[in-house]
Write a structure and sequence with these properties.
Its cofactor is Mn(2+); Co(2+); Zn(2+); Fe(2+). It is found in: Cytoplasm. It is an enzyme of class 3 (hydrolase). It contains 14 helices and 18 strands. By secondary structure, it is an alpha+beta fold. Strands 1, 8, 9, 10, 11, 17 and 18 form a 7-stranded antiparallel beta sheet that branches. Strands 2-4-5 form a 3-stranded antiparallel beta sheet, with helices on one face. Strand 6 and strand 7 form a beta hairpin. The longest helix has 29 residues.
Length: 469
């Protein structure tokens, strides 16, 4: 028994002695041995590989686990990863900041209310359709002197392009919106309010160029509803929408025809083709009568069938296109739409409204119906007025419109009341001109298309051209 207990004591003593590996490796911090530290580092590497490199093959992860671990190696790798993550986060933040700095383009509302100056933040407005002159004037395209002259007038062109962009956006909304059943007052106020908003109407700096025409059927021009007019647009109507926009007195005059019954399609096609012919023929040193002859030939080549009867589309011979001067819608030159007439030539730098009217009637209009359009005479002499009310009204006209055309509804907006007698007095004195509606034979139908062009030194620009017409 004594020998057995001695052997047991020796075995216990041997088992309590540290192994060679334990004698050579001192304990780590908190009493942990390097073996336990290594296992912790392995766990850390597993977490990293699962979070940051989940797409690595499983074999690579196993190799990483079996690889020998050196003291301090894992800490360095974690620091490097932290630095890379920080750098990546910084780059991402920088990209986000750059994206935030990039301004989104302002979009137009429905109905249009955003000024075009807000949409085009750089205040550079789009050109219209650029057309080269005919062969004898092709040299202008590359002539450096003419190009330099054109660059000098860029601000003027930019102003009138702003007015053209307003016209395009307003009319495109109007074409989408106008429907049978709407009153004529509702239609014109929609167009005029849109124009005022988009051009940022500000007296003589920018605003409406002239009253919105909405002439129906046999009435070809110069009709806009006065207050109290209850006329309603019908499905069978042919409606001419003619409105203007000005910036700095430079007026865009453009018109189109709206129909809802396809029976009138050929009438509209003939007039539109004639207008485009006039634009194509226009140019520096071109005689006005030659343009009229080309327009007539094209328009009379069209026929329209209405209720089983065929009509030739006739140009309305006593309606013309015209030159446009600053703050003066009708300049000194007329562009006929029939052959013969004025031998005057177009000149460099001039603005023209090329407009054509087609009719299924006589092709000749006369004044009829209640007058709505007026304009102060451009060069009217001083005339003494005896009626005090007429003097007050003239002061309002000079302050609000100058020589730009106006209508009775515009006088209503200024707060003027009971002005009919005073307005008649100004007309009789020769200070104000009146422009009553112009009509063809009752029962006929008339159509109109119009664009504003400028004869620049190097080329011709159709300022009011758009995707619609």
């Amino acid at each position: 028994m004594a020998e057995l207990s001695a052997e047991l004591k020796e075995k216990v003593a041997i088992s309590e002695q540290p192994t060679v590996e334990q004698q050579q490796s001192p304990a780590g911090e908190n009493g942990a041995t390097p073996a336990s530290t290594s296992s912790k580092n392995k766990n850390k590497k597993k977490k990293k590989s699962s979070g940051a490199a989940a797409d690595k093959p499983e074999t690579e992860e196993k190799d990483a686990e079996n690889a020998p671990v050196k003291e301090g190696e894992d800490d360095d790798e974690e620091d490097d990863d932290d630095d890379e993550n920080a750098a990546g986060a910084t780059k991402t933040a920088t990209k986000k900041k750059k994206k935030n700095k990039k301004k989104k383009k302002t979009a137009q509302t429905e109905p249009p209310t955003v000024p075009v100056s807000k949409i085009f933040g750089n205040k550079i407005y789009p050109e219209g359709e650029i057309c080269q002159y005919n062969e004898e004037n092709l040299w202008r395209t590359t002539n450096e002197e003419k190009r330099a002259l054109e660059r000098q007038t860029f601000d003027q062109y930019n102003d009138v392009r702003r007015a053209a962009e307003v016209h395009r956006q307003v009319r495109q909304y109007a074409k989408r919106t106008i429907k049978p059943g709407m009153s004529m007052i509702e239609i014109v106020e929609m167009i005029e309010n849109g124009t005022r908003n988009l051009v940022e109407a500000n007296g003589f700096e920018s605003g409406i160029g002239f009253p919105t025409g909405c002439s129906l059927n046999h009435c070809a021009a110069h009709y806009t509803p006065n207050a109290g007019d209850k006329t309603v647009l019908q499905y069978e109507d042919v409606c001419k929408i003619d409105f203007g926009v000005h910036v700095g007195g430079r007026i865009i005059d453009s018109a189109f025809t709206l129909t809802f019954d396809p029976v009138y399609d050929n009438l509209l096609a003939g007039v539109k083709d004639a207008t485009n012919t006039g634009i194509r023929e226009a140019g520096i040193d071109v005689r006005l009568c030659d343009i009229g002859a080309a327009i007539q030939e094209v328009m009379e080549s069209y026929e329209v069938e209405i209720e089983g009867k065929t009509y030739q589309v006739k140009p309305i011979r006593n309606l013309n296109g015209h030159s446009i001067d600053p703050y003066k819608i009708h300049g000194g030159k007329s562009v006929p739409i029939v052959k013969g007439g004025d031998q005057t030539k177009m000149e460099e730098g001039e603005y023209f409204a090329i407009e054509t009217f087609g009719s299924t009637g006589r092709g000749f209009v006369h004044e009829d119906m209640e007058c709505s359009h007026y304009a102060r005479v451009y060069d009217a002499p001083h005339v003494p007025l005896r009626l005090p009310r007429a003097k007050t009204l003239l002061n309002t006209i000079n302050r609000e419109f100058g020589t730009l055309p106006f209508c009775r509804r515009y006088l209503d907006r200024t707060g003027e009341q009971k002005y009919i007698i005073a307005l008649r007095n100004l007309v009789e004195a020769g200070i104000v001109d009146e422009y009553p509606p112009l009509v063809d034979t009752r029962g006929s139908f008339t159509a109109q298309y119009e664009h504003t062009i400028v004869l620049k030194p190097t080329c011709k620009e159709v300022l009011s051209r758009g995707d619609d017409y």
